[in-house]
Design goal:
The complex is a heterodimer of chains A (148) and B (202). With 148 residues, chain A is an all-alpha fold. Chain A has eight helices and no strands. Chain A has helices at residues 2-9, 16-20, 26-48, 55-76, 88-118, 130-134, 136-140, 143-147. In chain A, helix 3 packs antiparallel against helix 4. Chain B is 82% helix and 0% strand. Chain B has helices at residues 9-47, 57-60, 63-88, 92-122, 131-164, 168-199. In chain B, helix 4 runs antiparallel to helix 5 (131-164). The longest helix of chain B is centred in the N-terminal third of the chain and has 39 residues, at 9-47. The N and C termini of chain B lie far apart (55 Å). The chains are: A mainly alpha (148), B mainly alpha (202).
Chain lengths: 148, 202
């Protein structure tokens, strides 16, 4: 698709095609660096000074800053754009991100419910079994590692 | 690749493709590496709070040390950028200088990380203590191994540059290492955010 036009555009300048998409300017690097410093300092400050009392809110803010900083690094240091390699690097990145999201959210989702099912309270079938009433100690032992 | 005789139109296109192919191929390698880290992050996300009666993240993580490590890696990212800018201007001494600075910063990062690891293991918080520590050492250790191999690669390239100068082959190799190095910094953002910062939250 656009790979043809891209190659044609650089046809007269050997050596240009491989450098154009992947090395930036000084301004680009410095801008990226300053943004990265700010985006790193804020979450560190938030957590080290306990600025947010609720853990959930602090975790959400830390994750949001991490995602933002990753985008900054991609644009200013890795020079991602829609044109490099005819758009194939971006396509590969989007596909990878999709797999990453599936792997992360899928693992958390499945394992969260697995943990819930490991709880003795979560086993409705166990209540009716006579062995359960005879051996109350069995009830407590498997619960201990999960409760921490 | 190294044969850059200017030939018109059609043949010129032919010569560009291997060059682009290397960088695109290396990018695809980085994406597959990204999936390895995604699996390790998923393992940590699932196991990260299973302390098995052992120490928690809040008890063992030394945030000022992590902040130092983060700054070392971030600084090494921009110094590698300066090396690439020097390469663009065909300045071999400048390229070598900034590569050396990058290597020293990377070595500093690894030193601090090894210091942290040995400290944890001495305190009985080694990888076999709990699921949390197993997944922690696997994730952070894999990243540290990547940085170590990156430094080895960087030293190799500096020797190559010293011997052959800024030939097209070396430029291509420097560009691949540039992507690798910046990619490791992106992974580190995930590590310090998810493992260290979120790990010390109650």
């Amino acid at each position: 698709m656009s790979a043809d036009t891209d190659a044609a555009g650089h046809a007269g300048t050997p050596g240009h095609a491989e450098t154009a998409g992947h090395t930036g300017s000084l301004r680009e690097y410095v801008t990226g660096f300053l943004l990265a410093v700010v985006l790193t300092a804020i979450p560190f400050w938030l957590v080290m000074t306990h600025a947010l009392s609720r853990s959930g809110a602090a975790a959400a803010v830390v994750l949001a800053f991490a995602a933002l900083q990753m985008v900054i690094h991609m644009i200013y240091f890795l020079h991602m754009n829609t044109r490099s390699e005819g758009g194939w690097t971006l396509l590969a990145l989007l596909f990878t991100l999709m797999l990453v999201v599936i792997a992360l959210s899928g693992s958390l989702w499945v394992m969260y419910h697995l943990n819930a099912n490991m709880m003795p309270e979560g086993m409705p079938g166990m209540g009716g079994m006579p062995v359960h009433h005879d051996m109350p100690a069995m009830h407590d032992v498997p619960a201990a590692p999960d409760m921490q | 690749m190294s044969d850059t005789t200017p030939t018109p139109g059609y043949y010129s296109n032919q010569e560009h493709h291997p060059e682009n192919g290397t960088l695109l191929g290396f990018w695809l390698y980085l994406m597959s590496d990204c999936l390895i880290f995604a699996c390790l992050f998923a393992a940590y996300a699932v196991l990260g709070r299973n302390y098995a009666g052992g120490p928690t993240g809040a008890q063992i993580f030394d945030l000022p040390l992590v902040a130092l490590n983060t700054s070392l890696l971030l600084l090494s990212s921009i110094t590698y950028g300066f090396a690439m800018l020097a390469m663009q201007r065909d300045r071999l001494p400048g390229t070598q200088f900034w590569l050396a600075v990058t290597g020293v910063l990377g070595a500093g990062f690894i030193t601090v990380e090894l210091h942290e690891f040995s400290h944890l293991i001495q305190d009985g918080a080694g990888p076999q203590r709990s699921a949390f520590l197993s997944s922690f050492f696997t994730l952070v250790g894999t990243h540290g191994l990547h940085v170590s191999f990156g430094i080895l690669w960087l030293v190799t390239l500096m020797a190559q540059l010293g011997r052959h100068g800024l030939i097209p082959d070396n430029r291509r190799r420097l560009m691949c290492l540039s992507m690798f190095w910046h990619f490791l910094d992106v992974i580190w953002i995930g590590v310090f955010s998810v493992v260290y910062l979120m790990g010390v939250l109650p």
